Amino acid sequence: MKATINVAHSKFLLAVLICLVVAIACGTSVAQTTAAQSDAQKAFEKLKTTVGSWQGTMMGKSISFTVRLMSSGNTILQEANSGSPPPDHEITTFYLDGDRLLATHYCDGGNRVRWEGKLSPDGKAIEFNFLDIAGGTQRGFVKHTVFTIVDANKQIIEFTFIMPDGKPLELRGEFERTK
User: Fold this and answer.
1) Are 73 and 113 members of one domain?
2) Pairwise CA distance, residues 105 & 107, whole Å
3) Looking at residue 47, what DSSP letter applies?
4) What is the pLDDT of residue 29?
5) pTM to 2 decimals?
6) What pLDDT is recorded for position 5?
7) Is the dihedral of CA 134, 136, 137, 142 positive or negative?
8) Cα-based angle 172, 175, 176 (whole degrees, multiple of 5)
9) Which end of the chain is more exposed for a tag (fewer CB within 10 A), N or C?
10) 13-27: pLDDT as tens digits
């Protein structure tokens, strides 16, 4: 009987030991995955914190926009509207492409600009630089934009709009979360 208890006890201890090893391995794997997150993934996660509704002004015009997660959280959709053009329901999508953060901006100018985003060293801003454009530039286009997330309820959006004559127009807006 004593041998039976020792065998049963040994099997129980072995099962517990295996469970502990698996738990530690899984915990280490999760920690390594988090630690190995690319800068693009960090920037994308930062943008996800802006999900909600926002209100602010740019060039003296009231603008509201909504940020939503789409495609099972793989795409962020930002919809901007001022009630009168421009912007008249412009949308921008943000998504990861390998180790790059990309955005496509569907502009009132009748074009689609693609940008590549980079997280600032302090982790508060994501700067998007021009990659390419589809559609004409005769009504202008957004060449560059920066999203600075001040805190959970405030962000600053700056962008460079290239006018039809090729001259840049620098714009800045401050936005507060409404939901």
Assistant:
1) yes
2) 6
3) H
4) 42
5) 0.77
6) 55
7) negative
8) 165
9) N
10) 444 444 444 444 444
Q: Is the peptide bond before 164 cis (omega within 30 degrees of 0)?
A: no
Domain match, 44 and 31 both: no
What is the total count of domains within the chain?
2
125 CB-near residues (< 8 Å, 6+ apart): 119, 146, 147, 148, 149
Q: Using alpha carbons, list the distances in angstroms from residue 55 to 5, 38, 63, 147, 164.
A: 70, 31, 6, 15, 28
Q: Is the domain of 90 the same as that of 150?
A: yes
Number of continuous H segments (helices) and E segments (strands) in the chain: 2, 10
Could you tell me the residue range of the domain that residue 10 belongs to? 1-36
If one compares 163 and 108, the residue with the highest pLDDT of the two is 163
pLDDT digits (tens, 9 = 90+) for 32-69: 444 578 999 999 999 999 999 999 998 888 899 999 99
Is pLDDT above 90 for 169?
yes
